Amino acid sequence: MTENTKTHVILLSCGSFNPITKGHIHMFEKAREHLHKTGRFIVIGGIISPVHDSYGKPGLVPSRHRLTMCQLAVQSSDWIRVDPWECYQGTWQTTCSVLEHHRDLMKRVTGCILSNVNTPSTTPVIGQPQNQTSAIYQNRNTVSKPTVVKLWGKMSESFGKICCARPNMDRFTFVDENANLGTAMRYEEIELRILLLCGSDLLESFCIPGLWKESDMEVIVGDFGIVVVPRDGTDTERTMNHSSVLRKHKDNIIVVKDDINNPMAIVSSTKSRLALQHGDGHVVDYLCQPVIDYVLQSQLYINASG
């Protein structure tokens, strides 16, 4: 497949990130590597979306700390960004609503048409310019189509102003999403999708009766699709068979192949918090040094209540 015929993907990970661990970053890297190896996808970006403070999880530190730790964890990455939108809302947002927000935002910022995972576009995906100004890449015969590098670069110029730029650590601000972004870029024959990236523990939660609204699961798995990175040797095949929605949309679930002995597979925020509370030196195996420094400086997780 040529670059333009491959599906361009943005990986979105939702969660507490309390704190963000090396395992979270590893999940992004392994997912991108796996998707590229299939020959069908090009991962052009990753988004970390920390949960709102009103989620109510015991020991959840304020979002200003969690956002900062996430920023520190990805400061050397050229493709993973932190998005504060979810934290800035008036209340807790469902995973479904976060996915839909980013889908709608990407439509406005990129001019691309985002197709559902289970109903791929049968025609070239062409973004519509927002005004009458001549569109870039309008002449197929004389101007080359955008490469993935150009696509992500151009997207970042506008997208970064809204939610993916790394803001000042002391204050998180972003441009109003309804602001005038100028002429939208026109990307020809590029299919763009947002996929939910998660660990197998989230997949297992889909099987807990009453925890998820079935309508939300239909949208998450049926319309968007998910990329699962197994943890602790979880049998994802068995998990999927326990849910009618997961079985129905099995083709939309991409399971990443990872080394079962990879130490990152057992890293968790819970273990990290316990290590911090007990002064366990193994915390360096769980968290990157800038995050550890910030935790110590801010005196986070020094007791069982967070």
From TrEMBL:
<dbReference type="Pfam" id="PF01467">
    <property type="entry name" value="CTP_transf_like"/>
</dbReference>
<dbReference type="InterPro" id="IPR014729">
    <property type="entry name" value="Rossmann-like_a/b/a_fold"/>
</dbReference>
<feature type="domain" description="Cytidyltransferase-like">
    <location>
        <begin position="14"/>
        <end position="244"/>
    </location>
</feature>
<dbReference type="GO" id="GO:0005524">
    <property type="term" value="F:ATP binding"/>
</dbReference>
<dbReference type="InterPro" id="IPR004821">
    <property type="entry name" value="Cyt_trans-like"/>
</dbReference>
<keyword id="KW-0333">Golgi apparatus</keyword>
<comment type="subunit">
    <text>Monomer.</text>
</comment>
<dbReference type="GO" id="GO:0030659">
    <property type="term" value="C:cytoplasmic vesicle membrane"/>
</dbReference>
<keyword id="KW-0472">Membrane</keyword>
<keyword id="KW-0963">Cytoplasm</keyword>
<dbReference type="InterPro" id="IPR045094">
    <property type="entry name" value="NMNAT_euk"/>
</dbReference>
<keyword id="KW-0548">Nucleotidyltransferase</keyword>
<keyword id="KW-0966">Cell projection</keyword>
<comment type="pathway">
    <text>Cofactor biosynthesis; NAD(+) biosynthesis; deamido-NAD(+) from nicotinate D-ribonucleotide: step 1/1.</text>
</comment>
<keyword id="KW-0547">Nucleotide-binding</keyword>
<dbReference type="GO" id="GO:0004515">
    <property type="term" value="F:nicotinate-nucleotide adenylyltransferase activity"/>
</dbReference>
<comment type="similarity">
    <text>Belongs to the eukaryotic NMN adenylyltransferase family.</text>
</comment>
<dbReference type="GO" id="GO:0009435">
    <property type="term" value="P:NAD+ biosynthetic process"/>
</dbReference>
<keyword id="KW-0067">ATP-binding</keyword>
<dbReference type="GO" id="GO:0030424">
    <property type="term" value="C:axon"/>
</dbReference>
<keyword id="KW-0449">Lipoprotein</keyword>
<protein>
    <recommendedName>
        <fullName>Nicotinamide/nicotinic acid mononucleotide adenylyltransferase 2</fullName>
        <ecNumber>2.7.7.1</ecNumber>
        <ecNumber>2.7.7.18</ecNumber>
    </recommendedName>
</protein>
<dbReference type="InterPro" id="IPR051182">
    <property type="entry name" value="Euk_NMN_adenylyltrnsfrase"/>
</dbReference>
<dbReference type="GO" id="GO:0000139">
    <property type="term" value="C:Golgi membrane"/>
</dbReference>
<keyword id="KW-0662">Pyridine nucleotide biosynthesis</keyword>
<keyword id="KW-0808">Transferase</keyword>
<dbReference type="GO" id="GO:0000309">
    <property type="term" value="F:nicotinamide-nucleotide adenylyltransferase activity"/>
</dbReference>
<keyword id="KW-0520">NAD</keyword>
<comment type="pathway">
    <text>Cofactor biosynthesis; NAD(+) biosynthesis; NAD(+) from nicotinamide D-ribonucleotide: step 1/1.</text>
</comment>
<keyword id="KW-0968">Cytoplasmic vesicle</keyword>
